[in-house]
């Protein structure tokens, strides 16, 4: 990883997700070339978001240096030729295939054949996107979560034509960015986390729309059960910790009763058709005043930092280190 720090990571697309990824890379001592494919992206807003995030990381103890130190490793540009110095380029533009195709064409004209190319898509299969690149074996999905700098989450996805060897190498490198990455070895729509989360969303809508619970009750139940333990251990480890046999018994009766609908639920469809977009415009499953929206946004940021610091104390890598230490002590 140290040798890679001397070259740069390219990030194409400077929206909310792109600037969040840039922040994570910078605080992990990576040089970054940030490219705005749309002129309006390269304005004071993008740099302001990065500076604000870097300052928050400094104040919260996630980084040891002030923003100006990290900003020395950041190059902001509109020129694709500036990507020539990068060992990997990450595409973070909107989820529209035509836009991505155009961006890939411009990126591949600027970079060498050995440079890795990734997409932050959370919805389009990687095998589909590989059809639009010149060298598909070096192309991967790299699915980040927001805020990228406070979570250990990162999915690396192999498409049908991706090199598994390169995917495994990228997986190892991502550990140096403060991540505990997962490697999706076979491409599937939604990857790992979205498939699991959308199964939860579907059942949540089923419970509300059929009168079993209110929106508030479903949120409360999720926060105080799954939300209480999931960041510690995940699904399979939790069954191990709390008694696998009980889950086996319940599944026989419960699985046939779960929702398997394939249409978009009316509850979200009605809100979306009216233009509702949650806290960004105050209209969602809950309604928000501008003050409430700001408070929820600030609280989510604060929670993200605090849960990151707590969960890092119980990370899988630390368990393995302790286990190896005990094993070595016995030899």
Structural account:
With 331 residues, the chain is an alpha/beta fold. 49% of the residues lie in helices and 11% in strands. The chain is built from 13 helices and eight strands. Strands 3-2-1-4-5-6-7-8 form an eight-stranded mixed sheet, sandwiched between helices. Helix 1 packs across helix 2 (44-59). The protein is globular, with a radius of gyration of 21 Å.
Provide the gyration radius in Å: 21 Å
Helix content: 40-55%
* Main sheet overview: 8 strands, mixed
Look at the structure and give the mean pLDDT: 91
Number of strands: 8
Poorly predicted spans:
326-331
Q: N-to-C terminal Cα separation, in Å?
A: 31 Å
Distinct helical segment count: 13
Order of helices and strands: EHEHHEEHEHEEHEHHHHHHH
The computed structural class is alpha/beta
3D shape: globular
Q: Tell me what portion of residues adopts beta-strand conformation.
A: 5-15%
Strand order across the largest sheet:
3-2-1-4-5-6-7-8
Helix and strand layout, with pairings?
Blueprint: E1 8-12, H1 16-27, E2 31-35, H2 44-59, H3 67-71, E3 74-77, E4 86-91, H4 97-110, E5 116-119, H5 126-129, E6 139-144, E7 154-158, H6 164-174, E8 182-184, H7 193-209, H8 215-224, H9 226-242, H10 244-254, H11 266-273, H12 290-312, H13 316-330
Parallel strand pairs: 1-2, 1-4, 2-3, 4-5, 5-6, 7-8
Antiparallel strand pairs: 6-7
Helix pairs in contact: 1-2
Quick structural gist:
This protein is 49% helix and 11% strand.
Main attributes of the structure:
alpha/beta, globular, disordered C terminus, 13 helices, eight-stranded mixed beta sheet
